[in-house]
Description:
The protein is an alpha/beta fold. It has helices at 2-24, 51-60, 82-92, 111-119, 142-145, 167-188, 204-210, 220-230, 251-271, 282-324, 337-342, 346-369, 378-385, 387-403; strands spanning 39-45, 69-75, 97-102, 126-129, 134-136, 152-161, 200-203, 234-245. It is built from 14 helices and 8 strands.
Amino acid sequence: MIEVLIWFVTFFSLFIGIFWLQVTFLKEPERKNYIFPSISIIVPCWNVGCGVWKTLHSIANLDYPKDKLQIIAVNHSSTDNTESLIKKFIYSYSSLNITLVQKARAPNHMKAHAFNEGLKYVTSEYVGCVDADTIVMKDSLKEMMYLFEPNIGAVISIIKVNQPKTFYEKLQQIEYVFSSYIRLLMSRINTLQTTHGALSVYRKSFFDKYGGFDENNLTEDFEVGMRMRYYGYKVILASNSFTYTFVPNSFKWFWKQRVRWYRGFIHNTLKYKSMAFNKNYGTLGWFQLPLNIFSLIIVLIMFSLMVYNLADKVFVWVSKIFSLGLEYFNGWQIPNIYHSLLNLNLILYFPIIVSLLACLLIYIFAYKRINEPWKFSLVILIYFTIYPVFRSAQWVHSVYEELSKTKKKW
């Protein structure tokens, strides 16, 4: 049974992989002349310390007309030196249009609460959101603004990991390269349905008409992207706009962030379930959203089967030890690599190997397109072999928390 399922999953994955590789060769939108409409960038801040100075400094140094740029820093009841650093920054850059907004923060108030407060001070046609742990590149904003057309509700940038040093940061660097590449491909076929906090620019009139960020949502950026698609707007990615973000550098922080992201995905997919299998939403409705749902189901099934088979083998092993005692270890030898290879179940492992090779090819394309240096390393090997199991466990944890209605925490 498990062999049949693995073959099915493998060939399904290869089919999807080949589809995305074909999308790779589609032409990108033609570059138009740069346009510089007025824009307000909101930076929600809560106990970010020195990081807020780096973020504000990168925004202030954007290659963008300063008379068209408004910066709104929202201090969300920070208890560290965030507020004093923002005030010091405003004093140092007195020639810029920078506004400090104070907003009280309750335990259940998250980033969306601060962003919505900042919306009240926006004076521009467009509004951007930048997390206070992000560094925007000098030309990232102008690379986004020329893409806006009447039916486009938001434009997002490509996110890269800022100076990865630890194992967890390097692991996420690979993940971010791949996710940015997939978002680029989704943008080309008009199935992109998410925005993010690193740097996303929105049409202000959308918020005026349909409200700001959902303040009760774990992933308000994903929700607003889905809401835009629900009301007929497009979300696209600017392929030459790059931003750098800091990522979790510990197991606990990393796990907590991913569980929150995955819970947000599940919640918002259910919230907008009417879009799936709906031809009125084009490729997004009949291909992308069903693919998202189907992929999650496959992950849960495969992880459950893997745990079941592992538990079964452990049970048999323990049973033999209890029944045979120390005699079980008589004649036991370290497995020989040669004999181990000969005893491999090729029916089981061949499709897995082919699938891994296809994934490697996609990752090489991704690194090349996202302009990241690529070299083989132990982290990449772990990402392809061990990390999928680890990520599946995060999905299982997320599903459990959603089903049990565990309290939402940022």
